[in-house]
Amino acid sequence: MITSHNGPQPADFTDVRATNLAVVLRFVRENAPCSRADIAASTGLNKATVSSLVADLIDRRLLRETGLTEHRVGRPATMLVLDGSPYAAIGIEVNVDYITAVAVDLKGEELLNWRRSFPGGTSSAGQAVIAMAALARRSSAG
User: Fold this and answer.
1) CA–CA separation, 103 vs 112, rounded Å?
2) Nearest to 128 by CA among 136, 140, 120, 139
3) Is residue 132 within 8 Å of residue 108, measured between CB atoms?
4) Are 77 and 37 in contact (CB under 8 A)?
5) Which string of DSSP letters, residue by residue, matches 21-60?
6) What confidence tier does 75 reach under pLDDT thresholds 50, 70, 90?
7) Smallest Cα–Cα separation from 52: which of 89, 76, 63, 126?
8) Residues 63, 81: contact at Cβ < 8 Å?
9) Vertex 53, ends 58 and 74: CA angle to 5°?
10) Among 106, 104, 108, 53, which residue's Cα sits nearest to residue 82?
11) How high is the pLDDT of residue 86?
């Protein structure tokens, strides 16, 4: 159930799917490599739902299959790990005398960390925005 300014509203399919995608992604991030069966058993989602969610996450390049494990009873399982290679988050900090940009991948591993001097105490808000935008553009280019 979702609460809004109009009171509680039932969750629709999109809300439920988004929540379940997040549950699967978080589980893989914390337990990789893992199988679809591991996800289903640990999250309480049924196997068909997990398979659908994993397929969606693979299509989005957030997860990838790494191969089979044979260290289990029964047939080998296809193992999953985070991919996320096309994704990164960039954070920018403006301080009194510097600006820092940090980019991290989906796993939280630092991709870059740049610190540039900046006269924040004597600069206007517009100058700070221009400096942040320039550092963000440079960070996203690599």
Assistant:
1) 5
2) 120
3) no
4) yes
5) HHHHHHHHHHH-SEEHHHHHHHH---HHHHHHHHHHHHHT
6) confident
7) 63
8) yes
9) 90
10) 106
11) 83
Q: Is residue 142 helix, strand or coil?
A: coil
Whether residue 78 contacts residue 65, with contact meaning beta carbons closer than 8 Å, is answered with: yes
What does the DSSP 8-state code read for residue 75? S
The model's pLDDT over 12-45, given as tens digits with 9 standing for 90+, comes to 888 999 999 999 999 999 999 999 999 999 999 9
In the block, tokens 């991290």 appear at 104
Peptide bond into 8 cis (omega under 30): no
What's the pLDDT score for residue 3?
A: 57
Long-range contacts of 53-58 (CB under 8 A, 24+ apart): 53/17, 53/20, 53/21, 53/24, 54/24, 54/80, 56/21, 57/21, 57/24, 57/25, 58/83
Other C-beta atoms lying within 10 Å of the C-beta of residue 70: 8
Dihedral of alpha carbons 70, 72, 77, 79, sign = negative
Number of C-alpha atoms within 13 angstroms, CB side, residue 106? 19
What does pTM read for this prediction?
0.70
Beta-bridged to residue 92, according to DSSP, are 101
Q: Token match 């591991």: residue?
A: 38
pLDDT at 46: 97
